[in-house]
Amino acid sequence: MSVDANGFVYVADTGNNRIQKFDANGTFISKWNSPNPTGVTVDQFGVVCVAGSGSIRTFDTLGTFIRQWVSIGCRGIATDGEGNVYATDTANDQIKKFTPNGVFITGWGAFGDGDGELNVPGGIAVDGNGTVFVTDAFNNRIQAFSSFSPVPAPFAGFTANVTTGYAPLTVRFNDTSTGDPTSWLWQFGDGTTSGEQHPVKTFMTNGTYTVSLTAGNVGGTNTTVKENYIMVHLRCDFNRNNRIDIGDVAKVAWMAAGLIPQDPEADFDGKGTVDGADAARIAYFYVGKIQAL
Length: 293
Prior knowledge:
Elements: E1 2-3, E2 9-13, E3 18-22, E4 28-33, E5 37-42, E6 48-52, E7 55-59, E8 65-70, E9 74-79, E10 85-89, E11 94-98, E12 104-108, E13 121-126, E14 131-136, E15 141-146, E16 158-160, E17 164-166, E18 169-175, E19 183-187, E20 193-194, E21 200-203, E22 207-217, E23 220-233, H1 246-256, H2 276-287
Parallel strand pairs: 17-23
Antiparallel strand pairs: 1-2, 2-3, 3-4, 5-6, 6-7, 7-8, 9-10, 10-11, 11-12, 13-14, 14-15, 16-18, 18-21, 19-20, 19-22, 22-23
């Protein structure tokens, strides 16, 4: 429930999926639809802000829709003297702050029962000094915050679907960062970078590559570095000295002649056996007649 500067009362009628407006004596004035509203507030400019169904919606005092933005888990809602919007995010145990136009400014809070931690935050109010008061439901308390409480920086982390193989090696990287990052900077150890959250990178040449991820949000950045994370081998570099030498050429020839056991690594044409064509191919590569195995 909220009261505007003219004394009109606005009620979030959750079960009926609507907002109702009354005068100061309780006389019904008007109503309008808003799905599953869980909180309503009116700022000093006459903008009615409604939380519910994973979104924040704004209306004028006649119920005319203005705009909407997504805020998953929002329940309670409040505004400050500048029209900024504050919402309790019960899904993530956080408080989120937006501009009047719905642009995210900052957020704070995390699950727990310590100072500044929350467990199902519900109601919220902002006083004239900008202090934010929150009902911390499952911790049975009220907490007060500065409206400028910082959002913590994320903690960067990642995995890869493969970390070793033959060149060219295609690797799918998976961002596992926590703390709601909004930006990503990958460095793959070969001078290339990516700003995608889950990039796919092809390593064209053999070598060992150190990969890093810097994850960021409005609270700052955090970097995780994995030394020598990706190992790319040259196919048929049997002694792993990062080049094809005469010894590797000889081994494939011996395989084709049946003098030593065959290695599928030398089956370049994929016929299921190492034969003369494979021996010729690596020999041509060794002398520079072809550029790829």
